[in-house]
Amino acid sequence: MKRVPKPVFFIVALLILAFAFTAIFGVSYYTGDNKNTVLKGIGDIRWGIDIRGGVEATFKPADGVDATDEQLESAKSIIELRMISQGITDYELYADKKSDRIIVRFPWKSDDQEHDAVKAIQDISSTAELTFRPGNSYATTDIGSDGEYVYKTPTGDTEQVLMTGSSVEKAEAQYYTDNSGKSQFVVSLTLTEEGAKTFADITTTYLNKTVSIWMDDIMLSAPTVQATITDGKAQISGNFTSASATQLAEKINAGALPVPLETSNYGQIAPTLGMNALTAMGYAGVIAFIAIALIMLIFYRLPGFIAIISLLGQMGLSIAAVSGYFPAMPSFTMTLPGIAGLILSIGMGVDCNVITAERIKEELAAGRTLDGALDKGTKNSLSAIVDGNMTVVIVSIILMLVFGPSNILSFIFGESTTGTIYAFGYTLLVGVISNFIMGIFFSRLMLRSVAGIKPLRKKWLFGGAKNEK
Questions:
Q1: Cys bridge to 323: 40, 104, 279, 461, which one at CB 3.0-4.6 A?
Q2: CATH numbers and ranges of domains, the chain
């Protein structure tokens, strides 16, 4: 068996424990009364309608416009895209083409303590039309919630539209540091091929002049064009926070609605189970984990102890993939079926470690040396573990494809089933992938490392008979 250096066990174990702790509890600090989140944890997860309740709203075309079926379907698709971009997967969305209505139900945000239905609805139904205009003339001035001036309604030459958000291929929130060392949140734009040509013409025509950037009738910024930009890259700067820059980027990516919508009626949805069910499930999970840990220690000793560490890592990795811990993976709406998928995947993680430990015990009982038993036992258990996990991966992917946002078989199953079943498939898939990383790779790495520590090189610690050394 190929030896692994002894310190590897301690390094890997400490890294897994630190990662699991930060993934579960998150990392944040306060500046006055403002909470600044560095790494998201369980407290930042967006809970589904069944746990926390949510909003129900009915939209209709504004100003009595008679929308076509195509416009209504397009508006529905854009609202769906906006919800998905915000990590909302537990939703119901219908388009009633006979009465020109769009009905939507979705859960509250994780940080929404006031349960303001109007604000929640506005996030997904605003027209969000991005425009570039000459000059920076405006008709009215308001004071924003942050105390800064908000300039509204373009006037004069500024009413002319030079370019719209349809020329934007991708928008992304970034933390930018300029040449003077000043750092701020900005929204970076990547333009389409046609948009890049248009923007090059704009920056050539308006060189050393002001070109303002607007979202609907609100001016976001009014920079002076200092150079001709031909690479199709642009930035929107302003008094952005991380959240507001991300929200603006999401709206730009989703695009403007084909027709303005207004809310005909709305209301709050009470949770079907509530936070008490979540608390009960949390206690049950902790008790179950403690019971599993004790069983693993009693029956499998040192491999059982390593299994406990890898299970903590698997739990942390699964939660991180849901909470938005990783910037590349947006937060996910967690429902009770989603939690069930997470628990089921952790159960499979235990099974993975049990199979490996049993194979090692069998090899030790057959008279092999410790190194030989570890080598043969881990190899013999791999195929069974991979086979069992791959079947679950296939089922999870099928559930996500059928009941996910694409909903490719909605004509059979119906659109109302999307959120809850998709959550189950997603968390199950994430858990199985976490199991491959923690339960197979890292646990075996730690096992080979700890086998090199002389005081621990006793067969009974690895499942052999107690009189064996």
A1: 40
A2: 7-28+274-462 (1.20.1640.10), 128-256 (3.30.1360.200)
